[in-house]
Specification:
The complex is a heterodimer of chains A (about 260) and B (about 90).
Chain A (H helix, E strand, L loop, with lengths): L1 H30 L18 E7 L9 H20 L5 E7 L4 H5 L5 E5 L7 H16 L5 E9 L5 E9 L13 E3 L2 H79 L1
Parallel strand pairs in A: 1-2, 1-4, 2-3
Antiparallel strand pairs in A: 4-5
Helix pairs in contact in A: 1-5, 4-5
Chain B lengths: L4 E7 L2 E8 L1 E6 L2 E5 L6 E5 L2 E6 L5 E6 L2 E6 L2 E6 L2 E3 L1
Parallel strand pairs in B: 1-9
Antiparallel strand pairs in B: 1-2, 3-4, 3-6, 5-8, 6-7, 7-10, 8-9
Chain lengths: ~260, ~90
Amino acid sequence: MVAAAKLTKTQRSFGALQDFASASRGMLERLGGAGAADEPLLRAPETDAKLVYVLIVGNRGLCGTYNSALLKALQELAEAERELAGDADKEISLVVCGRWGREQIAALGLPVLRRFAVSDVPTAAEAEEISAYLQELYLGGAADRIVVVHQNFRSVLSQIPTARALLPLELPEGGAAADVIYEPDPASLLHTLLEQTLLGGVHAALLEARAAEHAARMTAMAAASDNTDELIAELSLKLNHARQAAITTEIAEISGGAAALKDKR
Amino acid sequence: MEDRIRLRLLTPDGLGWEGRVCSVSLPTPEGSVGILRGHAPMLCAVAPGVLRCRNAAGETRRIRVSEGVAGVEKDELTLLLQSVELL
C-alpha cells in the first residue's frame, strides 16, 4: 500500500520533469550548436581511461531481485568495458546513490568515490547535489566518461537494468533558428542549458529507479502475502488432522479401557 | 493592452506558474529586460531576482526566480528555472 502511494508520487514527479526536459531540449535546438566549440561539457576527452558508474540502488531490501539483478548487470558492464579496453588502462569506480547493500557493493571490488542518500521520492535538490558532484569529477579530470546504471521502470511487474551515458553530453540534432537574439552570448546560455540537461538526466534516472523500486516492492509484498495465505491454509489443515488423530486415539483408549473393566466384572 | 503573452515558468518539480499577461520584466545578469507582445525571438539568461508581470487589468504579480534561461518565441515566454516562489 505504502509502495503503491510512493509509486504514484514518483510517477507524477517524473511527468513534471519530462515537461521541463522537453522545453530545455527545444531551447538547445534553437541554439543549434552556437557556442559549442569551447564547451567543456560537450568535449569528449582524448583518453577513455577513467570510467565512473553512478549506481542507483534501492533504499531497502524486500523487493525481490531488484538490487541483486542490478549488481549483476553492473558487473557484466564493467567486465565488457575491461575486455574492450584490452591492455589499455581502465579505471572503473562507482558513485552510489541509495542506502542498500554496503557489503554487496564492496564485494564487487570497485572503489566507491562517494555515497549519496536519496529519499523515496527524489527531489530536484538531491539531484542537484549529485549532478554538481559529477560535473566536478568530469571537469576536474577525475572521470573521462560517466554512465548511470539503474533499474528502469517498464511496468509494475517488470524492471530492467539500464545504462545511460551522462557525460560528456550530446547536443540534440537541429539547425539554429534564424534571427534569434542571444543575451548575453550563446556560449554561456549553452552552458546553463547543458547544466540543466545534466541535472535533468540525473533527476530522471533517480525517479525511474525509485519508481522501479516501489513497483518491485509492491510485487514482492503481494507475492509474500499470497504465500502466507497458502501457508496458513496448509498449516490449519495439518493442525486439524493432528487434533482429529489425537481425539480418535483418546476415544479408542477410553472405550478399550471400559471394555476391559466390563470383562473383569 | 490585451494579454497577448503566454508566460510559463517551468521547474524540474513541475509548472511553477502559468498565465496570460501583457508585459513582463525579467531579471538578467545585465539588468532587467522588459518584454511586450511582438518581441523578437530571443534566448536569454535569467539572474536570480524578482520577475514582475502585469495583466491587462493592471494587476502586477511578483515572482522570485532562481538562475535559469528564458526563451521568447511568437509571444510565448518560457522560463526554465531551478525554483520559483510566488510573492
